[in-house]
Amino acid sequence: MGVRGYEHCSVLSSVLLVDFVPRVIIKSIAASYKSLDFDSKQVFLLTLARDLHVDAPTVQQTLSSCAASISTVTQSDTLLFRQLLSQLDGGMLFLVHLRADLRQVLGKTSNSKDVVVLRALDQHLQSFLASWFSVGFLRLERVTYEQSPGALLEKIIRYEAVHPVGTIIELKRRLGRGRRCFAFFHPSVPDEPLVFVHVALVPRLADSMTYIKEATEQLADEHEANAAIFYSISSTQPGLQGVDLGNFLIKQVAKRLQEDLPNISVYSTLSPIPGFTAWLHLT
């Protein structure tokens, strides 16, 4: 990337740090960012991270001179995130994708000083996203072959990370009798399943996919099942890594199943989830 490219990225970054940025400029910056290649995004994010970063001596000096100023110094990133969120259509998803890019840049950065400022920006952005993607804002929805939009079914196939879905017929089987699929959605990105889980309803505790496949195929009535096995959970947004959606999802699904199928007395996962057993004993 040439000198103009670096200057362009620096200008984009510096404009975002103004206390108020008009909507039209926010949209222009977002569009420009999306068109950048990886190297240019790396320059943009590093410039932004450096401009937002406040080192310990600066914080101490500001705190000593004027306590009120510390809020302005340390909350620049939050102001930036809120401006992007409020003035940009699809601003939430833009922030999620921005953090995904940021984490990719972090993984390819070796300079220790750059790592420090990038990691600080990543932590602040993660905290900001976690506050917006808390369980109170999320909508639990069951995914079915008959009623869910085709676009959603395609995303379930594409994002499945544990047991790949080869064909639409395979997906139909996974959404059929003896199976459940639930996903979390957020009002700001209503068409994107943020995380989804597949559940098998079986007669007893399962320890393999082979048993799950055979037991669900032979199940004549779901009310005969005694166990719900969470056998696959997939997160669709790398930018939400560290935001604990999966744990919340499983607990919400367990509550839903308790209401819909009171015959289910055993809840388990094929792989351990920290705190899941203790939570079940409390509910």
TrEMBL record:
Gene3D superfamilies according to UniProt: Malonyl-CoA decarboxylase, catalytic domain (3.40.630.150), Malonyl-CoA decarboxylase, oligemerization domain (1.20.140.90)
A single Gene Ontology CC term: peroxisomal matrix
Alphabetized Pfam families for the sequence: MCD, MCD_N
Domain Malonyl-CoA decarboxylase N-terminal positions: 67-133
MF terms (GO), sorted A to Z: malonyl-CoA decarboxylase activity
GO biological process, one term: fatty acid biosynthetic process
InterPro entries per the UniProt record, alphabetical: Malonyl_CoA_deC (IPR038917), Malonyl_CoA_deC_C (IPR007956), Malonyl_CoA_deC_C_sf (IPR042303), MCD_N (IPR035372), MCD_N_sf (IPR038351)
Location of the Malonyl-CoA decarboxylase C-terminal domain: 136-281
Protein name in the entry: Malonyl-CoA decarboxylase C-terminal domain-containing protein
Organism expressing this protein natively: Aphanomyces astaci
